[in-house]
Design a protein that fits this description.
This protein has about 240 residues and is of the alpha/beta class. It contains seven helices and six strands; from the N terminus they run H-E-H-H-E-H-E-E-E-H-H-H-E. The longest helix is centred in the N-terminal third of the chain and has 52 residues.
Length: about 240
Amino acid sequence: MTGDAADALTIDDEVLEHARELRDDLARFLSEYRFGMREIETKMLILREDFEHTHAYNPIENVSCRLKTPDSILAKVMRKGIEPDFESIREEITDIAGVRVTCSFVSDVYRLFELLAGQDDVTVLEVKDYIAQPKPNGYKSLHAIVEVPVFLSTGTVRVPVEVQFRTIAMDFWASLEHKIYYKYERQVPRRLTDSLRDAAYTAAELDERMERIHREIHGATPEPVRPLRALEGGGEQVA
């Protein structure tokens, strides 16, 4: 083997070793968010089971989780001009881990948020109430960034998790809107955006009507704590 070939092989080995280290670091980094996501998922599933046994009523229709892919994280890093290191990403991107809680009624959304926010090991960092103030396109949901401790063999880390609470009607609308925007690569014709906005109003009206029927059958329930009140001890309310 010539000297040049040996040098090239050494460089390739160094690059390969660096790539392996980066891969392992990324896996450890994402595992913290995966564990934090599972912590929130478990909390919501416990609440669902408790409601079924204690109140003979289940306010949670579905709980789903998602973890951003490395490509998705990188795209956000580039879009927001974040330094491409793990510490900067940890500080600037708070929705790497996400949990979506689909509820039966709007009152359930706020009630479940209150119950989650009131747990001793949960810190609410930020709330965006798109139910009280929908987005211009009609989107409705309650978004909360919460922080939970994850207990690892190397110590405890606090992990931010985005939790989205929405009703079945809101979830159906958001799913359809996402598919349309994906199909048209975000260049959706005006007639469709207008139709989507009208559909959002219809979905909101359906939520209100179903809530009234629910209250007629089961009686009025105590008014749930709104996010701003739940944050009196800290955190930030963002409309």
